[in-house]
Amino acid sequence: MKKILFRHESFLAFAIIFFSIIITLINPSFFTLENFFDLLKSFSLTGTFAIGMLFVLISGGIDLSFTAIATVSGYTIAVLLLNMGDRLNILLIFLIAGVIGVLLGILNGAIIDMFKIPSMITTIATSNIFYGLLTVITKGKWLYGFPTWFGDFAQIRIITLRTAEGWPYGLSIITLIWIVLLLAAWFILKFTVLGRSIYAMGSNPVSAQRAGFNLRRLHLFVYGFMGLMAGFGSVIQALLVQTVAPNSLVGKEMDVIAAVVLGGASLTGGTGTVLGALLGVTLLGILGNGMTLMHVPSLWYKVIIGVVILVSVSFTAYRRKQSIRKRVITE
After folding, report:
1. How many Å apart are CA 111 and CA 108, to the nearest integer?
2. What domains sit in the chain, N to C, each tagged with a CATH number?
3. Helix (H, G, I), strand (E, B) or coil at 88
4. What CA–CA distance (Å, rounded) separates 129 from 35?
5. Cα–Cα 20 to 30 A to 59, which of 87, 114, 274, 307?
6. Which of 94-103, 119-128, 194-203, 315-324 has the lowest mean pLDDT?
7. Angle ∠(63,66,67) on CA atoms, nearest 5
8. In the beta sheet, which residues pair with residue 157?
9. pTM confidence score
């Protein structure tokens, strides 16, 4: 029990409960089932991106191009929906977006592995290339007016309840997609050799290579997986807002990185869990929603994100330092 209580995820859970109580005391409408389901739905985009970022951070890298990849994927499916929407379905849309995301993500992984360029520099460069080419080609045009079936899919609920006034709400199909992706990521990291090899590469790439792990394949997988989540995220974004714009996801990178780092993933690699990432996304989502309900200016949200990143990184570094010190004393 003591071990569980002192886990990073436990501190996050306590923080979520604490802030939820504070927000509810100020605005009781926060602690309602309707708001809970709305929060889960709104978490879906950041949560999907966070899954991919978790894999990248565990591997010892970082990806700042995933929003650009998502924008390219999203714009592509938007064009397809407008031109041949009646011949498409939601599975095909996810497949197309996922394939585009994987290809662009693998390109990142290949450059990082072949030329040994730091992942931050590589993904900043590719992000600018992807955004730049898309802006030139599209001239910044917004796309909307998608087929009716696409909008109808976004309204599907797995569980439907009604408010006292008779308005429907419940568990959205979009939330279910995010939950399925979370479970798949958890399974890979927890129960497969691939998952263990990603942790090994992030902890010590030299030792991982000596142990027989193929670092090139791991780089391609990790960044390809980030691309896959970016592609899926682009579809989720289109479902949520029913429009696609070349600049709609600019600035989302820091939110996602903050959530995953807050969840316990280290920027130096080798640590992180799906549960931690989930709790990190939840905490940031609750803070954002709570600030809205408390009528706090949205500009303060960026300040909070910055503080969260600083505190989380400092806390993780402190815990790692303490762990090394205990190991040295024991030896």
Report:
1. 5
2. 29-330 (1.10.3470)
3. coil
4. 39
5. 307
6. 315-324
7. 130
8. 172
9. 0.94
- Provide DSSP, 158-199: EEEEE-TT--EEEEEHHHHHHHHHHHHHHHHHHHSHHHHHHH
The encoded tokens of residue 236 equal 């989720």
Residue bearing tokens 């949560």:
47
Distance (Å, whole) CA 266 – CA 313: 7
Q: Using CA atoms, how far apart are residues 37 and 211, in angstroms rounded to an integer? A: 45
Question: What's the one-letter identity of residue 153?
Answer: F
Q: Which residues contact 230 (CB under 8 A, 6 or more apart)?
A: 49, 52, 66, 67, 69, 70, 73, 101, 104, 105
Q: Token pair of 27, please?
A: 């605005």
* Amino acid making up residue 130: F
Per the structure block, which two tokens stand in for 111? Answer: 């450059």
Contacts of 287 by beta carbon, 8 Å cutoff, 6+ apart? 19, 301, 304
Closest CA to 48 of 34, 67, 72, 21: 67
Mean pLDDT, the chain, as a whole number? 91
